[in-house]
TrEMBL record:
Residues 27-171 form the Thioredoxin domain. InterPro entries: Thioredoxin-like_fold, Thioredoxin-like_sf, Thioredoxin_domain, Thioredoxin_ResA/DsbE_sf. It comes from the Bacteria. This is Thioredoxin family protein. SUPFAM superfamilies: Thioredoxin-like. Transmembrane segments: none annotated. PANTHER family: PROTEIN DIPZ, THIOL:DISULFIDE INTERCHANGE PROTEIN DSBE. It comes from Chryseobacterium gilvum. PROSITE patterns: PROKAR_LIPOPROTEIN, THIOREDOXIN_2.
Length: 171
């Protein structure tokens, strides 16, 4: 009986967590999405728009992750390889850790302190994540030099479309 109950609970949880690719690949952010705030490591609130403005004229890869996410941690070596192979690209990390303390612990534990990190203090459900249809982490997005979306949806740093989008933007 215990096994059946466990199976049912896992099935219900799995149905609610889907990594289905969104039907439409968006190329721009909505005004509401750009106004979404995140916190930097020091706890300062910044909007997505302010974060992207810091990288105006550069290609950006946004890496959505969390310290509790096994898939994210397994992807780290390949994500680091992608970063190393693209020195002219800015990598920005958006954390979905469940608390500021968890965010801080994850940065320390996974040697992320030297990277540009932000945390969704509002949690998973917010205007930005709703707009981009965030339904799984890790997730990667490529942003062009004008802050438009060049690669909307990828759940692996090994996705060849990420590198293809970067290469196309570097031309």
């Amino acid at each position: 009986m215990k096994e059946i109950l466990t199976f049912l609970m896992l099935s219900i949880f799995t149905l609610g967590c889907s990594q289905k690719k969104p039907d439409v690949s968006k190329t721009r952010f909505s005004e509401e999405a750009l106004k979404q705030t995140l916190q930097n490591e020091e706890g300062k609130n910044m909007t997505v728009q302010e974060i992207l403005k810091q990288h105006q004229g550069k290609i950006v890869v946004i890496d959505f992750w969390a310290g509790w996410c096994r898939d994210c941690l397994q992807a780290f070596p390949k994500a680091q390889e992608l970063e190393k192979n693209n020195p002219n690209v800015d990598f920005v990390f958006f954390s979905l850790d469940r608390s500021k303390e968890g965010f801080d612990r994850s940065l320390e534990k996974f040697n992320m302190k030297e990277k540009e990190n932000y945390w969704f203090s509002t949690g998973w459900t917010n205007d930005f994540n709703n707009y981009i249809e965030l339904n799984w982490i890790p997730r990667y997005m490529v942003i062009d030099q004008k802050s438009n979306i060049a690669k909307y949806y990828s759940i692996s740093p090994e996705d060849p479309e990420i590198q293809a989008a970067i290469d196309q933007l570097l031309k």
